[in-house]
Amino acid sequence: MILDLDIGNTLSKWRLKDRTSSDIRARGAMWTRDEWRSGDDIPDLDIVDVIRISNVARQDVLEDTVRLLKRRVGTIHIAHSTSKALGIRNGYDIPERLGVDRWLGVLSGYQLTGGCCTVDCGSAITMDAVLPGGQHIGGYILPGLRLMKESLKLGTRKVVIDPEQDALHTLSPGTNTVDAVNHGVFMAATSAINRLYMEICDSHDTALPLLMTGGDAALVSRGLRLPHAHWPDMVYAGLEALFPITQAERNGVLAGMPMVIKPAGLEEMRKALAFTQLL
């Protein structure tokens, strides 16, 4: 069995994948600093023979985790951002400083589309673009929905903001302070994604497929005025592309690959940009 591990600063997500059938057998999440012993939130390491890791937490967290896991599992692959991989050239001035989750998303997205814009809606909202031909051009980092809500909670002490509350009618004005904040945060995030995506496509004269992932992707997707595909396993798929183990992975079949949605036409996007510039 393969254990794929996505270590975040607070939460670590995992899944177990059958190396013969490529089926996903189990999924879960645990607090990053929890001990690795069997339990409801911990995968059974007795059935694992290889591990693939994406880590955006501190280096000492990764080292501690690997040290614990090596006692039980012999083969561990750790992903790193590099200057080149799988036909893609990293656009960062210092390639290793690109968050590895973003790099894995770019790698998997490029295998699927041959050029795309990837958006990961987590604690932060990250956007990256890779052009046809494999040039990663960099990206953007925005505060995520929860982070924006929490910043308003801290900045306005008389207002209680529930960071778990979703905007049910996200385009309408809020009729109470909590809804006003939720709706405003939602519109800030979706408007930024809409605008930045169109700017990228316009400036590089290409209409890129748009791929969404992350815990808030389903919610954020409601406010996008652009064709897009939702790929929950996009970061895991990057691990599969970088360290193929199963026959399906070696054949280029990555977990949960969505149908590629044809992007909007460039002229349509340029008309929308021209309209926003008049506002």
UniProtKB/TrEMBL annotation:
Catalytic residues identified in the record: 101
Cofactor needs: K(+); NH4(+)
Annotated Pfam families: Pan_kinase (PF03309)
Stored Gene3D superfamilies: 3.30.420.40
Enzyme Commission number(s): 2.7.1.33
Entry keyword set: ATP-binding, Coenzyme A biosynthesis, Cytoplasm, Kinase, Metal-binding, Nucleotide-binding, Potassium, Transferase
InterPro entries: ATPase_NBD, Type_III_PanK
Residues the entry annotates as binding ATP: 6-13, 123
Family: Belongs to the type III pantothenate kinase family.
Name of the featured protein: Type III pantothenate kinase
Higher taxonomy: Bacteria, Pseudomonadati, Pseudomonadota, Gammaproteobacteria, Oceanospirillales
Protein's gene: coaX
